[in-house]
Design brief:
Blueprint (H helix, E strand, L loop, with lengths): L2 E5 L8 H10 L4 E7 L9 H14 L3 E7 L3 H9 L5 E5 L6 H13 L3 E6 L17 E5 L13 H15 L5 E5 L4 H10 L3 E4 L1 H4 L4 H9 L1
Parallel strand pairs: 1-2, 1-8, 2-3, 3-4, 4-5, 5-6, 6-7, 7-8
Helix pairs in contact: 1-2, 5-6
The protein binds D-xylitol-5-phosphate (DX5) and zinc ion.
The site of zinc ion has 6 residues, from strand 2.
């Protein structure tokens, strides 16, 4: 069963609460929270996303899907575990050592949260294979991290297909999430390649009907 995680990065701030309700009515499965620190990527969304996450934790029972695009992974894991999100993903490019990576995965899991590793388009799956037995999900970035509304990079779907092959061959039971440039057409290709969690921001938020957009991605 495919899941849809709506990225609220490009939301109109004034309409935030109404949009959260409307997305829930439209049956998004999760809210995808893009945390950018102004260092790992240019933009800084830390304040805004904290604000949205707190609001969401009060008004919805749906899971939060926290995507850390930050250099100081440990600091943000500590900050977000209190909100009890469903997933916390951090970038392998940001963690300096294998020990740190494993510690971060453990901290997330010790708090009852599903742990995920995110990989940018230029990073190969070879670099994350050793962590696959310990995580619940791999987030494959299908655009360069940093902003919403970009076009999916087709080669990233080959990476999804290779990853899917590897996890099936080794009998791992983990989710593959794709993030960036997902629309009706690219969602189809991403699912064919093996993704089962689809992040979409602009495709859903710019649609005339959230419900139809979410349905299109799920079917
Ligand atoms: C990009 C973010 C994505 C992005 C998705 O750095 O991680 O979550 O906002 O937005 P769309 O669906 O518009 O590409
Ligand atoms: Zn994201």
């Amino acid at each position: 069963m495919n899941k849809v995680s709506t990225s609220i990065l490009t939301l109109e701030k004034e309409d935030a609460v109404k949009t959260f309700y409307d997305l829930e009515v439209a049956h998004t499965d999760m809210f995808h929270i893009d945390i950018m620190d102004g260092k790992f990527v240019e933009k800084d969304t830390t304040e805004l996303m904290k604000d949205y996450s707190l609001t969401l934790s009060h008004i919805t029972n749906l899971g939060l899907d926290v995507h850390l695009m930050v250099e100081n992974v440990e600091e943000f894991i500590d900050e977000y575990v209190d909100l009890e999100p469903e997933y916390i993903s951090f970038h392998i490019e940001a963690t300096k050592t294998k020990e740190r990576t494993l510690e971060n995965i453990q901290t997330i899991k010790d708090n009852g949260i599903k742990a995920a590793i995110a990989i940018s388009p230029d990073t190969s799956i070879e670099e994350i294979k050793e962590y696959i037995p310990y995580v619940h999900m791999i987030l494959v970035m299908t655009v360069i991290p940093g902003k919403g509304g970009q076009k999916l990079i087709p080669e990233t779907l080959e990476k999804v297909a290779n990853l899917k092959k590897y996890i099936t061959e080794n009998n791992y039971d983990i989710d593959i999430e794709v993030d960036g440039g997902i629309n009706g057409e690219t969602a189809e290709k991403a699912k064919e390649a093996g993704a089962n969690v689809l992040v979409a921001g602009s495709f859903i938020l710019n649609a005339t009907s959230f419900k139809e957009a979410v349905e299109t991605l799920k079917k």
